[in-house]
Task: inverse folding
């Protein structure tokens, strides 16, 4: 009988990718994914450490799962509870201490060993020995070698990790400590994974990296490639009709990469380019290496190459020392850029990061109040962007059946979530296809249309 494997993903798309890979590595071991931790044989929490709230959630989930594990034990069966991801990397020993119910802790660079860890734990348990395992090594290369051997699932969209880790050390951020230093996968490996995805029917690939545009490598004919060259090559693979990449840093937004948005049809007109703040004083304190003017200049060039590009960003409000004037600079930058989508957060001091040591921490109420103002402006811009496509015909990649029997869900080139009314059409046949959709309704979160 198949064993049940429940995995919960917190945080970013890199974690979504890692989760998919864990499902891949556990499948040959007889573990099948299930959508509830209740009764599962293996529960993995793939955690996120970026903000305090995300990390705290893990401990409350562990508490909830503890009861389910107890129920399973009472029935004479076992459940392995494993904590993976970035909280595991940062606080592995603490988790082991604080939550004795956790059997296993592993970091983002060791999860390819999951089958070994599970087998080892089961063997130790069966001998009545101490079976808790902690593996938070940070060396990356072996992981991808192991993972590339596993099969890929058939889905119209896929993530492909090309780069991992970060050397930028923004003063607020834990990523350089939890994901390790910057690492680019080899071009051969990436191309080989990409061909497998295309052969499995993937139409849209999203290249992933914490600093994806810092990707660099040497091709088999000795040429230096950056992300721009990689996208150009990937666009030639039969079957790939859409290419996206995330997350980029303004520092590595080269002219070659900007030109890709002009030249490569498959490169979608959407870019997530976090700025974090509009005040140069705050950007400096954040160690961002760009200022508001250099960021705006990138956006100007990008729009010159691709006038319709949809822009997205990340913002932090209430970074230590942020005055009302500094915050106003963020609002000014947002008005200037006009975002199609954005993510904004209150600054959350993270243990071990330089900004957490700064004296002039901002009061929580002020952070909340600024976040409310910023989010109102961003929502207004997002609604405006979505409404601007009403009446237009957009190409939509159908990803899944919709909420009702006559609709499907897909994404526009601009990353908008689109609900498409398809009438009597066979929905299963539409999944994975790019269709033309006449948009008839906008709104803040998604847009709607009918097949054109
Ligand atoms: N506090 C608040 N937001 C943060 N981010 C990263 N670290 C912190 C922090 N300590 C945000 C940044 C980043 C996004 C992924 O999360 O905006 O781009
Ligand atoms: Fe964190 Fe900055 Fe690196 Fe992004 S660039 S992962 S915010 S340190």
Result:
């Amino acid at each position: 009988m198949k064993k049940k494997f429940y995995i919960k993903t917190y945080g970013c798309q890199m974690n979504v990718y890692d989760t998919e890979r864990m499902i891949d590595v556990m499948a040959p071991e007889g573990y099948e994914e299930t959508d509830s931790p209740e009764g599962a044989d293996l529960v993995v929490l793939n955690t996120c450490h970026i903000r305090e709230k995300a990390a705290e959630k893990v401990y409350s989930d562990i508490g909830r799962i503890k009861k389910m594990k107890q129920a399973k034990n009472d029935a004479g069966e076992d459940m392995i509870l494993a904590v993976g991801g970035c909280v595991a990397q940062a606080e592995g020993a603490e988790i082991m201490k604080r939550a004795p119910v956790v059997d296993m802790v592993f970091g983002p660079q060791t999860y390819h060993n999951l089958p070994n860890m599970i087998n080892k734990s089961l063997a130790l348990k069966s001998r009545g020995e101490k079976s808790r395992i902690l593996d938070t090594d940070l060396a990356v290369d072996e992981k991808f070698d192991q993972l590339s051997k596993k099969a890929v699932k058939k889905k119209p969209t896929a993530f492909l990790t090309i780069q991992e880790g970060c050397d930028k050390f923004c003063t607020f951020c834990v990523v350089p400590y939890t994901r390790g230093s910057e690492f680019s996968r080899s071009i051969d490996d990436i191309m080989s994974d990409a061909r497998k995805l295309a052969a499995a029917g993937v139409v849209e690939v999203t290249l992933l990296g914490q600093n994806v545009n810092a990707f660099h490598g040497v091709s088999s004919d000795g040429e230096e490639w950056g992300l721009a060259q990689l996208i150009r090559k990937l666009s030639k693979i039969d079957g790939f009709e859409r290419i996206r990449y995330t997350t980029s840093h303004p520092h590595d937004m080269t002219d070659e990469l900007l030109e890709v948005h002009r030249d490569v049809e498959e490169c979608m007109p959407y870019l997530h380019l976090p700025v974090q703040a509009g005040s140069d004083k705050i950007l400096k304190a954040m160690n961002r290496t760009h200022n508001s003017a250099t960021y705006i200049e990138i956006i100007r060039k990008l729009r010159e190459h691709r006038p319709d590009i949809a822009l997205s960003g990340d913002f932090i409000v209430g970074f230590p020392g942020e005055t009302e004037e500094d915050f106003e600079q963020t609002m000014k930058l947002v008005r200037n850029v006009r975002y199609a989508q954005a993510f904004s957060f209150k600054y959350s001091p993270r243990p071990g990061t330089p900004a957490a040591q700064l004296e002039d921490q901002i009061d929580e109420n002020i952070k909340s109040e600024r976040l409310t103002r910023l989010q109102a402006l961003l929502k207004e811009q997002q609604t405006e962007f979505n409404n601007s496509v009403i009446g237009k015909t957009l190409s939509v990649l159908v990803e899944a059946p919709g909420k009702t029997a006559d609709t499907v869900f897909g994404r526009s080139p601009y990353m908008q979530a689109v609900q498409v009314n398809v009438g009597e059409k066979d929905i299963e046949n539409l999944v994975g296809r790019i269709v033309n959709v006449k948009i008839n309704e906008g709104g803040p979160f998604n847009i709607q249309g009918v097949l054109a």
The domain at 141-387 is CATH 3.80.30.20 (pyruvate-formate lyase- activating enzyme). The pocket of 5'-deoxyadenosine (ligand 1) is lined by residues 50-51, 172-173, 274, 276, 314, 316, 345, 347-348, 350 (CB under 6 Å). The chain has 14 helices and 21 strands.
